[in-house]
């Protein structure tokens, strides 16, 4: 007898719309809208501000951003803490952005 269990249902992580991270000035901010558009703001480096808009999707356990313009932006984020936070890495900098409206559940 062979038993097979599919884990595809467990890998279907849904990232709720909301605000992830800080205010954009002191920490990066990512706003995910229900219509699968996003606004990313990072003004922490005044000499190189990053403001991007585009669309987002979920592939397996990753959030994938597709900006409308050519901007240097991390495009893949791993979904952690049951969808409450997303994390990414750029060189030696590690970022974890949590949904501000769900912080009491972390």
Structural category is mainly beta
Overall radius of gyration:
15 Å
How are the strands ordered across the major sheet?
Answer: 1-2-3-4-5-6-7-8
Helix content: under 10%
Summed over residues and divided by their number, the pLDDT gives a mean of 82
The CATH homologous superfamily corresponds to NlpE, N-terminal domain
**β-strand amount:** 35-45%
Number of domains: 1
How would a textbook summarize the main sheet? 8 strands, antiparallel
**SSE sequence, one letter per element:** HEEEEEEEE
Number of strands: 8
From the 3D coordinates, which CATH architecture would you assign? Answer: Beta Barrel
What's the CATH class label? Mainly Beta
Describe the structure in your own words:
There is one protein chain. With 106 residues, the chain is mostly beta strands. The protein has a single domain (16-91), classed as Lipocalin (Beta Barrel), CATH 2.40.128. Helices cover 4% and strands 44% of the residues. The protein contains 1 helix and 8 strands, in the order αββββββββ. The protein has one helix at residues 8-11; strands at residues 18-21, 29-32, 37-42, 50-59, 62-67, 76-80, 85-90, 93-98. The chain has an 8-stranded antiparallel beta sheet, with no helix packed on it. The longest helix has 4 residues, at 8-11. It is globular, with a radius of gyration of 15 Å. The termini are far apart. Residues 3-11 have low confidence and may be disordered.
